[in-house]
Known about the structure:
Blueprint: H1 4-17, E1 22-26, H2 42-47, E2 55-59, E3 63-67, H3 72-78, E4 85-88, H4 94-101, E5 107-110, H5 117-129, E6 133-136, H6 141-145, E7 158-159, H7 162-165, H8 169-182, E8 187-190, H9 193-200, E9 202-203, E10 216-220, E11 225-228, H10 236-242, E12 246-249, H11 254-257, E13 265-268, H12 275-283, E14 287-290, H13 295-300, H14 304-331, H15 339-351, E15 356-359, E16 364-367, E17 391-396, E18 398-400, E19 403-404, E20 407-412, H16 418-435, E21 438-440, H17 445-457, E22 468-470, E23 479-484, E24 503-506, E25 509-512, E26 516-519, E27 522-529, E28 538-543, H18 561-578, H19 584-593
Parallel strand pairs: 1-5, 3-4, 5-6, 8-13, 11-12, 13-14
Antiparallel strand pairs: 1-2, 2-3, 7-9, 8-10, 10-11, 15-18, 16-17, 17-20, 18-19, 21-28, 22-23, 24-27, 25-26, 27-28
Helix pairs in contact: 4-5, 14-15, 16-17
Amino acid sequence: xxxxxxxxxxxxxxxxxxxxDGFVVPLTDEHMSEYVGGYSQRLGWLxxxxxxxxxxxxxxxxxxxxxxxxxxxxxxxQVSAEDWxxxxxxxxxxTAWLEAHVPEGxxxxxxxxxxxxxxxxxxxxxxxxxxxxxxxxxxxPIDSVWSDRPAPSDAQLSVQDDDHAGxxxxxxRAEIAEWLGERQADAVVLSALDSIAWAFNVRGDDVAxxxxxxxxxxxxxxxxxxxxxxxxxxxxxxxxHLGNAIRIQDRSAFAPALNAFAGKxxxxxxxxxxxxxxxxxxxxxxxxxxxxxxxxxxxxxKNPAEIAGHQAAQARDGAAMVxxxxxxxxxxPQGGLxxxxxxxxxQAFRQETGLLKDLSFDTISATGPNGALPHYKVTxxxxxxxxxGQLYLIDSGGQYADGTTDITRVMPVxxxxxxxxxxxxxxLKGHIAIDAAVFPDGTVGAQLDSFARRxxxxxxxxxxxxxGHGVGxxxxxxxxxxxxxxPYYPGGQxxxxxxxxxxxxxxxGYYKPGEYGIRIENLVLIVEREIAGAEQRMLGFExxxxxxxxxxxxxxxLLTDQELRWLDTYHARxxxxxxxxxxxxxxxxxxxxxxxxx
Length: 598
């Protein structure tokens, strides 16, 4: 197997053959997905980076990899400093780096199926200022040198029944048609995989841990649609479910179909549809409306069936987590556990529910120094033994037909230090501040972000990731458009107004490089709050995740009376929901974990 240095050399040779002086390598696919299938893992193949967000630029004499604060340590562990410059975003963008390093007259290649038109326009203009050119490639040069590149998944689609979806596909498409009518548009292109899955009430198995199918769709003003997907992936049950109003076409027919809208008004999302889609619509004479995909907001605001399903999934998943935490507390001190074996045991507890479809992401099973890597991915090679004196962080989730879960807990192995207890309690205070927040309708996530950071800021500490992301309904564990994060957070949509029915994670943390990491994560639902005398509509959060928060890591003297009441109330609810699912010994353990905090 060629080394990553060999791969970089091979790519440079290929660029020279294609008459290019450089190439941009994003970590995404032709649907602008965050999580991608193996065939699209070009950045990881080229560099060795295993994070879920990043990009690279390769020039003839230098190369750079771009990551945000979540991966500052990880990228240095996985990517060779001899071959790559580490660049932090958003402080430095790919465009700004290229502008500073591109040779005069240079030709920088990009794959138009992997970038937005906004990025292309901005970067093309910046390079033109340097006398350089941004060049669209017909064939991605990495694919030419990646000899064992996996083929796209051929997994079949499945039906997401109306009981779980809460609304039929026909009803959803009628709402999209109404949206098109309001804009006097003839059709909308759907290219985001979770938008297609939600609109057509189908799921897939083409991307690890995200139940989506590789496809494109066009929905027309009459509510009919075209679904572009490999025909062998469509079962008779799915065909019957879609009905006559949906025309199923080969995925390869999508690009030519975009040329058939001459004179028609067609909507496409500038953030989620790649540049090649806009180029094809323009070439065919369509009048393109650049506007957000209408599914994005509809999907984010959960309907009653989706909320009820999520609550059922959370209760089931919570019991599996409690069994795992009990097992861990009893087993870890004996020695012999590793990050990988602990992750495998948690997955087994979830599988014992009989309803687990998949994990919702690669489990972050991290002990000691690996816990300080917020998005650490355990492998057989990286897995550390879990030893006394460490903090063990487990961030995990399950995919169930009725909901997607995501939870983080931290457990000590032996007696935690005073510093560990202090930091954990400050993170808990930030978590409580978010959970208890009450805010006016129309508040954006960026306005709440500092609530979670204040207890850390007060002693000169912070953490380098957002506070909360949206969550899908048996879909992607990371779902927009809502987010709680600082306004400049990479990829963040923290200026999106928060609306009742949206789900979010609540996950402040603290990370001490080389020693340990702390994160406390629950999922929450935005609900309307009735406040006596309120002169405007007010919102707040309803907790969805119920698993005990480790009491031996809490320093009660740092908590206010109000925070102590929150913690006792939360644990009483954990006991109420989870205890009935447990055996007697498990219930006794849970009762002790949920006892009032002194």
